[in-house]
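Colleagues,

For the teaching module next term, I've prepared a clean inverse folding example: a structure given as tokens, and then the sequence designed for it. I'd like students to try predicting residues themselves before seeing the answer, so please don't circulate the second half yet.
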């Protein structure tokens, strides 16, 4: 079939297998060009578990582990398989492409597709590690999900993207209608806050580490990190100090709990704060498309624009595998300074204050945002023939 993007609201409902393969190849080539292994002061990862491995920051972590350090990688994701009539999800095609490239390079790559929040998938993962790897020395936690079924009670929790304390009126850009307009977001109630913490907080990260450790599949001195976005004043009302921010604060609690509960194995756990960029998760958050279109404009002018792969390659060399990495008072790594420093934020704020429906496309880099949005689904990628008839059914082995 000839596959063209089908965009519905903030999501694209199909994906292009050849485009996704090209995007994975581009990220692999970037990592190879960076020679991350020789830039790392410590010995890099050898056997890596990536929870949320198929898109965004998790995929970039998998690619950096494998093609930067030659690590064996086991991925966990939740993706839809293609059929003759319907394409698979981008994460499905990315995973298939990653497997092909890893295997061609002689690197172990296996993926478990299922609900990472469930104990069943945790147990399947443990068995797979026992069988194939023995132990893992790096565990990346990069899930982004709107809901989670509690494995103890079966209760389904849903996350909400709302301010906390008081309502908030701000500008937003509706990608569907090409419209800059004001929105008022009502404050979350306590139940919505609690449910968001249940989904996007640290409970599941901690549960993974405890179960893996009890099964004896975590190597002595292993590292684990979970990703967060902290941001600055412009995004605090809807992110940092909102429901999702409170959930992310719970990652700090979980990091301490993991260090404590796995101390006999000397496991280090750090939250890593990354920059805002276009992923399937961030495009669903109100205000973020407008904010990201503006930061792309400013950061491209400053020459500091980065995508997932650049952020993660930097995280590995300057934090995870550096001898004395800088951490803040919560023991977090930071990779977002090029976005959140005062001078850059002041430029973004000046644009933010001026932006209207009329000048939006001049003041922002929405073209760059939209290009990267399409790239997430394998579209608008250089070197891909989008008129060609392609088979949507691609499997991984
Ligand atoms: P993403 O949507 O690109 O990736 C999410 C991954 O989680 C995918 O691999 C998906 O398959 C997997 N997943 C979701 N639900 C699952 C489930 N139930 N079981 C198994 N796998 C599941 O998201 P992303 O933007 O890369 O976000 C990853 C992490 O990085 C999140 O914690 C996010 O908060 C954080 N982060 C994102 C940004 C940003 O701007 N995008 C910035 C900083 C931090």
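(Answer key — instructors only)
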């Amino acid at each position: 079939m000839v596959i063209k993007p089908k965009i519905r609201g903030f999501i694209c409902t199909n994906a292009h297998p050849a485009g996704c393969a090209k995007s994975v190849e581009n990220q692999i080539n970037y990592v190879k060009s960076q020679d991350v292994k020789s830039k790392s002061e410590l010995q890099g990862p050898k056997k890596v578990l990536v929870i949320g491995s198929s898109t965004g920051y998790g995929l970039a972590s998998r690619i950096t582990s494998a093609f930067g350090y030659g690590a064996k990688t086991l991925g966990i994701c939740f993706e839809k398989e293609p059929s003759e009539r319907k394409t698979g999800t981008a994460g499905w095609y990315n995973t298939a492409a990653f497997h092909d490239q890893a295997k061609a390079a002689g690197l172990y790559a296996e993926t478990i597709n299922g609900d990472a929040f469930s104990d069943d998938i945790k147990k399947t993962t443990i068995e797979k590690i026992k069988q194939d790897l023995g132990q893992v020395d790096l565990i990346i936690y990069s899930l982004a999900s709107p809901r989670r079924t509690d494995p103890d009670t079966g209760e389904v929790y849903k996350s909400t993207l709302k301010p906390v304390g008081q309502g908030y009126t701000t500008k937003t850009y509706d990608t569907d209608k090409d419209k800059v307009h004001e929105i008022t977001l009502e404050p979350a109630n306590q139940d919505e806050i609690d449910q968001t913490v249940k989904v996007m907080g640290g409970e599941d990260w901690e549960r993974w580490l405890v179960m893996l450790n009890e099964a004896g599949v975590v190597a002595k001195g292993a590292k684990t990190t979970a990703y967060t976005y902290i941001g600055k004043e412009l995004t605090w009302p809807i992110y940092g100090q909102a429901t999702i921010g409170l959930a992310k604060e719970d990652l700090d609690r979980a990091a301490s709990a993991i260090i404590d509960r796995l101390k006999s194995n000397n496991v280090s756990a750090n939250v890593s704060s990354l920059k805002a960029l276009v992923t399937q998760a961030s495009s669903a958050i109100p205000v973020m498309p407008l904010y990201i279109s503006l930061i792309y404009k400013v950061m491209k002018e400053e020459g500091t624009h980065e995508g997932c792969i650049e952020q993660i390659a930097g995280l590995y060399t300057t934090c995870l595998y550096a001898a004395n990495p800088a951490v803040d008072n919560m023991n977090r790594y930071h990779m977002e300074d090029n976005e959140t420093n005062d001078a850059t934020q002041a430029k973004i704020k000046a644009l933010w204050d001026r932006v209207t429906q009329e000048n939006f496309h001049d003041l922002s880099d929405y073209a760059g945002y939209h290009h990267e949005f399409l790239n997430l689904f394998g579209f608008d990628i250089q070197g891909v023939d989008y008129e060609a008839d392609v088979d949507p059914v691609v499997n991984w082995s």
